[in-house]
Design goal:
By secondary structure, the protein is an alpha+beta fold. The chain is built from five helices and three strands. Helix 4 packs across helix 5. The relative contact order is 0.15.
Length: 142
Amino acid sequence: MKGNKVLKTMVIVLAVIALSGTAALVAVMNLTGKEKQEAPSADELADSSIDIPEMTTNLADGRYIKISFKIQTDSDKGKEEVEKRDFQIKDAIIEQLSEMKAADFKGKEGMAALKEQLKQQINALMQEGKVENVYITSFILQ
């Protein structure tokens, strides 16, 4: 009887070790198996991006802003769609800016938040492609 208990314990310990080893192996293979994506070249960026010319609009606190953007898409189809949806994108930008105050633009965090919000809003409009990045190319707050 005592031998059976020891045998069962050994089998359970071996099973736990085998499962732990398998889980560790799978985790290591997943982490090291993913190749790093190369950053797009300047030509690729230019080919997949469009400019949103300088816009002037009022902010929620009565001040105003002059701002322009460059929108990077994931493909040629995405770029074409952004060009066709130009008026919708400008509308989304104006709506977003009209809810913001000058204090919202302080520091990197404020700019990063604006770019992320615009990216999400534009992607919600998109059907063919996807916006990868939104860049602020000029910015004057008064």
